[in-house]
Amino acid sequence: MATTVYSLEQVAAHNTKNDLWVTIHNKVYDISKFVQEHPGGEEVLLDEAGKDATEAFEDIGHSDEAREILESYLVGELDEKDRRTDYNYNAIRAGDLPQEKSSGSVLKVLIPALAVAGALIYKFVLAPQKH
C-alpha cells in the first residue's frame, strides 16, 4: 500500500478543533478525534494545529504508550520538500528523569561541618571558661 504524501500547506489547512492535523518527525497525523481525550488538554493541541509539532511533542516527554496511540492517527508522510531535520528539543521519555550531575566539591560538606564544629567549641569550651 502506497503512503499518502502531504505538503506542509495541505497540513496547515487542517487547523481547527474538529479538523486537526499535525506533523511529527515528518509524518502526518489526523488527531481530530483525539483532541477531547488528550490528557494535557485541547489547548495544547490547538496551539500546534496544522504545524510541525515535533519539538512540542518531544519536549513534553511522551510515554511509549502515547507514541503508540499517536501511530493510530497516522495518515501519511510529509512531502520531501517540506521535511525538517533541524529540530531543537531535549528528548525525554515519560518516566525518565534527567541525571543530576554531582559536583564532587568537598567544600559543600566541609564549610557547614566547620561552622557546626565552631559553634559547638564556642558553646561547650570557650563560653563556660568565661564565667
TrEMBL record:
InterPro entries per record: Cyt_B5-like_heme/steroid-bd, Cyt_B5-like_heme/steroid_sf, Cyt_B5_heme-BS, Cytochrome_b5
UniProt entry keywords in alphabetical sequence: Heme, Iron, Membrane, Metal-binding, Transmembrane, Transmembrane helix
Superkingdom of the organism of origin: Eukaryota
Location within or outside the cell: Membrane
Pfam families per UniProt: Cyt-b5
UniProt xrefs under Gene3D superfamilies: Cytochrome b5-like heme/steroid binding domain (3.10.120.10)
Start and end residues of each Cytochrome b5 heme-binding domain: 3-79
GO cellular component, one term: membrane
GO molecular function: heme binding; metal ion binding
Family affiliation: Belongs to the cytochrome b5 family.
PANTHER family: CYTOCHROME B5, CYTOCHROME B5 TYPE B
Name used for this protein in its record: Cytochrome b5
